Amino acid sequence: MEITSLFRENIRQLAPYSTARDEYDGELGIYLDANENPFDNGFNRYPDPHNKRIRAKISAMRGIPAERIFVGGNGSDEPIDLLFRVFCEPRQDEALSISPSYGMYRVAAATNDIRLVEAPLTEDFRLDTEAFLSRATHRTKLAFLCSPNNPSANLLDPAEVEKVIRGFDGIVVLDEAYIDFAEHEGFLPRLAEFPNLVVLQTLSKAWGMAGIRIGFAFAAPEIVAAMERIKYPYSVNIITERLVLQELERENLRREQIALLVEERRKLVAALEKIPLIRHVFPSDANFVLVRVDEPRRVYDNLISRGIIVRDRSRIAGCEGCLRLTVGTPDENVALIEALRYPDRPFDKSAAPAASGSRRATVTRKSRETDITATLDLDNASPSKISTGLGFFDHMLDQIVHHGGFSLELTARGDLHVDEHHTIEDTALVLGEAFRQALGDKRGIGRYGFALPMDESRALVLLDFGGRIATRWDVELKRERIGDVPTEMFEHFFDSFAQAARCNLHIAARGRNEHHLIEGVFKAFARALRMAVERKPLDFDLPSSKGLL
């Protein structure tokens, strides 16, 4: 098959846009060719329009020559759109897709004014090869297969996929976004066998880079070259390139996470099969599971009310009554199972796990002496709402929030009629636990931090969220109380916080005015927290040479 004969005529004749970097590809020099700002801030130069470093890395990892790799700057969606533009004449040609499947094929076809013909899968989502190929005509230039398929989650029979590749006269686009979760290795190792095959893969799923938006098209060099000619010249920016190359070095971590997700998928399927309201659980080779229920909208709304967001697919032909459930963390999966198993049970929002990627935690502690709830958000500086019944203590906690740049809602009801001890101690334990939970795996945090002057006083707070627990208090207080708080409780507060947060905390302060002294301590503590929990935007390494915190 002569691949270039399938290109649109105008694409064959197209002279690509030439960037300044196309005309000079050296590494050193005084760059006065691209009208860039000459002052270096790390981002003042245009990125490599051909993504050579990413292609070289993927080539080495996958064993595919670089000239067979196209890098898409918006996941797999950019390659999908470009393939329509390379091969399909608007208002004239057609494309073919299985149904139900990934909705972007239909959107890209409509955007390019191409008729998309959909061939239904069988009731159990198998590919009927003869029925699929029978819908192709002389106008059909592209055929889309998604395996494992979205939303059905099943791997299409590889033998049937091969029949389509061999039996179709146009370009077969095999979308393998979820192939890492399947036992089958996919068709990438056999790419050279099939000149008319394009394999799409992405870093959004198994690699956990959905927020970065990078995908790949693996194809014959002629196809890749055509896609390069018509793409926007700088679709992958410098920040994205750096992050991708950084994350691609974590292949061992990726394998561990895939193994965990596959095991969690097995547990989730086993649990779902025992839940009465679920009529059927479809087999899954992806990182999600499709289930059929009697009243999908009611089940969906009930999950939403519990803070669990799934995908309602019940309006899609072939998926009537179905919900799509992504495999989450172990805690998230337990929350999902419990919500489905006991839909009428009252929901305790404070017991729900924080969303993945969120640095937010809600902690409740109830005892005979106190009833305390705290909601902490490390990445939101909303005004605090703090009430402990102790005015000066509230003022000090507000210093932590204001100067730390956090959001905190904390309500404490304690046995103040006895004394302040239990309220202050348990507040510290709750707050420390909230920090521990919100920090999660601690990747990318500063870890350490802070010294601060306060009028004639000065305070030094040394903090380490490394997991070792120790407290050192070097603050001399002569007054019995500051405001309505006994001075002996300040040391106890920080010691209790360190125990709950599992951190190392050293505090030293000197000064004449003890109100200033303690306020300086809390402000320095806040700034130390701010430094320690701050995430570096381009670095999500664990801040430990041991690789463990």
TrEMBL record:
The modification N6-(pyridoxal phosphate)lysine is found at K205. GO terms for molecular function: histidinol-phosphatase activity; histidinol-phosphate transaminase activity; imidazoleglycerol-phosphate dehydratase activity; pyridoxal phosphate binding. The keyword Lyase applies. Residues 41-340 form the Aminotransferase class I/classII large domain. SUPFAM superfamilies: PLP-dependent transferases (SSF53383), Ribosomal protein S5 domain 2-like (SSF54211). It catalyses: L-histidinol phosphate + H2O = L-histidinol + phosphate; L-histidinol phosphate + 2-oxoglutarate = 3-(imidazol-4-yl)-2-oxopropyl phosphate + L-glutamate; D-erythro-1-(imidazol-4-yl)glycerol 3-phosphate = 3-(imidazol-4-yl)-2-oxopropyl phosphate + H2O. It is found in: Cytoplasm. The keyword Cytoplasm applies. It comes from the Bacteria. CDD domains: AAT_like, IGPD. One of its GO terms (biological process) is L-histidine biosynthetic process. Its EC number is 4.2.1.19, 2.6.1.9. GO terms for cellular component: cytoplasm. Pathway: Amino-acid biosynthesis; L-histidine biosynthesis; L-histidine from 5-phospho-alpha-D-ribose 1-diphosphate: step 6/9; Amino-acid biosynthesis; L-histidine biosynthesis; L-histidine from 5-phospho-alpha-D-ribose 1-diphosphate: step 7/9; Lipid metabolism. Pfam families: Aminotran_1_2, IGPD. Keywords: Amino-acid biosynthesis, Aminotransferase, Cytoplasm, Histidine biosynthesis, Lyase, Pyridoxal phosphate, Transferase. InterPro entries: Aminotrans_II_pyridoxalP_BS (IPR001917), Aminotransferase_I/II_large (IPR004839), HisP_aminotrans (IPR005861), IGPD_sf (IPR038494), ImidazoleglycerolP_deHydtase (IPR000807), ImidazoleglycerP_deHydtase_CS (IPR020565), PyrdxlP-dep_Trfase (IPR015424), PyrdxlP-dep_Trfase_major (IPR015421). Its cofactor is Mg(2+); pyridoxal 5'-phosphate. Belongs to the imidazoleglycerol-phosphate dehydratase family. Homodimer. This is Multifunctional fusion protein. It comes from Rikenella microfusus. The lineage of its organism: Bacteria, Pseudomonadati, Bacteroidota, Bacteroidia, Bacteroidales.
